[in-house]
Specification:
- The protein is of the alpha/beta class and 483 residues long.
- It has two domains: 129 residues, NAD(P)-binding Rossmann-like Domain (Rossmann fold), CATH 3.40.50.720; 226 residues, 2-Layer Sandwich (Dihydrodipicolinate Reductase, domain 2), CATH 3.30.360.
- It is built from 18 helices and 18 strands.
- An eight-stranded mixed sheet has the order 15-14-13-9-12-11-10-18.
- Strand 6, helix 6 and strand 7 form a beta-alpha-beta unit.
- Helix 6 runs parallel beside helix 7, helix 7 packs antiparallel against helix 17 and helix 9 packs across helix 11.
Length: 483
């Protein structure tokens, strides 16, 4: 009898040990989590007393937007130069870890007949910049790992912030941005230039006008072989980050335009995602050669599927390691039409759908039929894209539409300038920004969320609601203009 009891005791102990092991954390997350019905659910902090939602937030208009730039290595200098072409701007301070980089940017101010800016340098030079009384906006182009520290410090000192992509690296960092913006009542925007690409903007306007019917699926990506560029990043920060982190760590170029077309946190919300990665071959070879590391945690190809609360889907890819042609894979699939940018740009329309949403006869191409199985003819696409250019593309700047004006300035085909111009315009007129702190958090959170899914056998991961329940407070994305 004792032997039987001993046997059952062992069985019970093993079962209990197994249950305990099942409850133990099997991954590292930046915030607490539970597993509910097989889905990883990260803790969502409640809004603290005194914090307010930033949905459609309007700040006091600024006659002149006084700017300080932090991070003047690769992207920062171009931003400084672009700002010299925008009216109503004063560049007050330039900061980089290395003083000579900040000093070099004075030449842009000299060329524009603008006063020299104050120079800050060192690991914490940004703090003195943020503490100045004559700065309204801190524009952050540092390595990713510093984005949130700089932004949070700036917001705590009453400054609006604009942060390069991704704006944060973990879910915990995303919440820091949200809380700082809500607590201090200042703007925190993500510098996602791809939302201002001319194809994406025109397509967004077509979608908002109903040309594609209901959008049910979108695709986005960052596919860019960075082999020629790895050694250009100061102190090897970018390769080090890729070597140490699996997941879609640079999702915002792809997911940003998709979320805008799907009205994410403006009537719909990202619900959950599933991600998987290939093994690392080119990445492992690269990190061995340049870093002496035997392991590269990031797979060469990352694939992610996302589902929204309203039943729409997004297909995302990330690949910076293989010789694929550059692609952001931008695609919208609607019940009545289709748009695709890479590798072949084109649209598919139903003629009856065009007629049903047209406000006048001039909005309908002079054709008898459209083949739904192929892209629309070039002449039809040219006519439709001319008629459905987004109001932002047509916004007048010195008597010229912003799209044309931006091409004369440059910056990724003009979309960088359009992004900066819209930021300054909205700040000067006290308007809600085109992209808010919740966009910054949602799009940037993909890095950690995809890693958690990959490291747990592609288990579903719930996307946090960074709006804390306000995701359906407004109906649709609006780009605001002065009345």
């Amino acid at each position: 009898m004792k032997r039987v009891m001993s046997f059952f005791g062992v069985v019970v102990a093993v079962l209990l040990a197994g249950c305990a092991a099942e409850q133990e954390p099997r991954f590292e997350a930046s915030v607490g989590y539970t597993i509910e019905d097989g889905v990883i659910v990260l803790d969502e902090p409640v809004r603290e007393p005194g914090q307010q939602s930033m949905i459609e937030f309007r700040a006091t208009p600024l006659d002149t937007v006084r700017v300080g730039f932090v991070g003047l290595g690769m992207r920062g200098p171009g931003a400084v130069e672009r700002f010299t072409y925008i009216d109503g701007v004063a560049i007050k301070a330039l900061c980089d870890k290395y003083a000579e980089r900040a000093e070099r940017c004075q030449a842009y101010l000299t060329n524009a007949n603008m006063p020299a800016a104050a120079i800050y340098s060192g690991d914490e030079g940004y703090k003195a910049l943020c503490e100045r009384d004559d700065i309204d906006l801190v524009y952050i182009c540092t390595p990713w790992q510093l984005h949130v520290d700089v932004a949070e410090y700036a917001m705590n000192h009453g400054k609006h912030v604009a942060i390069e992509v991704p704006s944060a690296n973990t879910v915990a960092e995303c919440w820091r941005l949200v809380d700082a913006a809500e607590r201090n009542r200042v703007h925190c925007t993500i510098l996602e230039n791809c939302c201002y690409d001319h194809f994406e903007l025109t397509t967004l306007n077509m979608a908002q006008c109903g040309l594609f019917g209901e959008i049910i699926h979108a695709e986005g990506a960052y596919i860019h072989n960075l082999e020629p560029y790895w050694t250009h990043y100061a102190d090897n920060w970018r390769l080090e980050y890729n070597q140490a982190h699996n997941g879609d760590v640079y999702a915002t170029h792809g997911i940003g335009p998709c979320c805008q077309a799907l009205n994410i946190h403006r009537g719909d919300r990202l619900d959950y995602l599933v991600a998987m990665s290939t093994k690392s071959i080119n990445g492992a070879k690269l990190t061995r050669e340049l870093m002496g590391e035997e392991e590269c945690r990031q797979g060469d190809q990352i694939n992610t599927l996302i589902r929204t609360v309203e039943g729409r889907t997004i297909d995302m890819q990330h690949n910076v390691m293989t010789p694929r042609p550059y692609s952001r894979m931008y695609q919208l699939v609607g019940t009545e039409g289709f748009a695709n940018k890479y590798p072949v740009s084109g649209y598919t329309f139903k003629l009856e759908q065009i007629r049903s949403v047209a406000s006048d006869e001039e909005a309908v191409p002079d054709i008898e039929d459209l083949d739904h199985h192929t892209f629309a003819p070039e002449e039809v696409v040219a006519e439709m894209t001319a008629k459905y250019r987004h109001p932002v593309q047509l916004q007048p700047v010195e008597g010229v539409p912003l799209q044309e004006y931006s091409l004369s300035i440059g910056g990724h085909g003009g979309m960088d300038f359009m992004m900066d111009y819209r930021l300054v315009y909205c700040l000067r007129h006290g308007l809600p920004l085109d992209m808010d702190v919740y966009d910054a958090a949602e799009w940037s959170s993909m890095g950690e969320l995809t890693r958690l899914s990959i490291e747990n056998g592609s288990k579903p991961v719930r996307v946090p609601d960074f709006t804390r329940g306000d995701w359906d407070r407004v109906d649709g994305l609006t780009f605001y203009f002065e009345e």
